[in-house]
Amino acid sequence: PALGLNANAPVKSGQFTAPVGNATSARVNLNLASGTTTIDALSDSNALIDAKLNYVGAIDFAVQGDAEKTVRLQQRNGTGIMFWPFSSLNGDQLRWDIGLTPRIPIDLRIDASSGSAQLNLSDLKLQALTIDASSGAFNADLPDMPEHYDVRVQASSGSFNMNVPEGVDLRAEVDMSSGHVVFDVPNGAAVQVDVRNSSSGSVVVPSDYTRTRDDGRDQGTWESPNYGQAERKIILVVTDMSSGTFEVR
Prior knowledge:
The protein is 0% helix and 53% strand. It is mainly β. The strands form two sheets. The protein has an eleven-stranded mixed β-sheet with strand order 5-6-2-8-10-12-14-20-16-19-18, with no helix packed on it. A hairpin with a 3-residue loop joins strand 5 and strand 6. The N and C termini lie far apart (47 Å). The relative contact order is 0.14.
């Protein structure tokens, strides 16, 4: 109560939208609530973002810029402190449905304390994807882009499943404290796994991958049979793994 938090605060509903306008690219920062979030590509829409939210407290929504837009969407309470759900609200009661434009390149940054998220990003034009999550379950369908793009995942716990399409040229960096991070890659994809620091975690790769560098424990590199000859590659770098499991399948 001293912080202005109310366990019995009512759930509100709202829609937050902004047009593409003159934008040729955008940086979208989403600070998710502790419920259930779905992110999809918009269809037949002139909006850059169209978010339908069930929330407690207040929403901070800001759009800046013209040719290069910056969007910020996050849940806040009246004191400006991020709201933490002390009540027994379930994921459907605090559901967020967010649509993003597939018309322009997007640098998407997602910050989540808890909750679950389904990221249907296959139709978006991603410049980069950054996910920082403390817990919960994340499932992401990545896009098949003609251009190379980067993914960064920082996971404290919970589960992450990243579905990689065929023909993608991708570099992903993962920093994980615990939990289970999975990259589902296509059959025959050219893949390198580079684990740089592992305290007590485990690495699981397909049986036909070759270990090309052995730094002890689960540190080193593994490569698919066709990695050296491929033009488009999937490079997965685990910068730090305290515990948990990193898996490629």
